[in-house]
Description:
It is built from seven helices and no strands. The protein folds into two domains: 98 residues; 72 residues, Arc Repressor Mutant, subunit A, CATH 1.10.10.10. It is mainly alpha-helical. It is elongated. It comes from Roseateles rivi. Belongs to the sigma-70 factor family. ECF subfamily. Keywords: Sigma factor, Transcription, Transcription regulation. InterPro entries: RNA_pol_sigma-70-like (IPR039425), RNA_pol_sigma-70_dom (IPR014284), RNA_pol_sigma70_r2 (IPR007627), RNA_pol_sigma70_r4_t2 (IPR013249), RNA_pol_sigma_r2 (IPR013325), RNA_pol_sigma_r3/r4-like (IPR013324), WH-like_DNA-bd_sf (IPR036388).
Amino acid sequence: MISPLSSDTGLSAGAGQGWREALGRLYREHQPWLQGWLRRKLQQDEPAADLAQDTFVRLLRRATDTEALRAPRAYLSTIAHGLLVNHWQRQDLEAAYLAELAAQGEPQAPSPELRLQQLQQLMALQQLLDGLPPKAARAFLMARLEGMSYADIATELGVSERMVKHYMAQALRQGLQRPLDAAA
């Protein structure tokens, strides 16, 4: 068991036995009252017990001279009120987070019709690319999918910008011919 005067509390062992006894006495005399006060505020037993315990942990960490307290209940309720506000803020934050998650809804898979349409579009794109020379196909993908400029594509492919324009025109002609070929 950790001593209330251990290094974890920030207190030195020289604080003395009297300090421990005073804190123990304060706990015995006021903990039931404090827990009841918190229970009335929270309308719940478990969080009230936790916050009452946290209040005394704060006292322990602050190394408060509990014998010098003129109004111990006022002092305890002030500490507990700060912890209570933190508790409510955490609850509000959690509720907002859960509401946001609920508003996003379940990720939905595309309908079978949409999946078929997307598959058909991908197949048409593949046919277009198959009908182009490799550099023209690559130039088309860089421009349309990656959003690269003709100058950047030219640098990447090691050709002139004019050649990239030629490749794009070739891809567009090929794309326009496909629907006509399919209709025939």
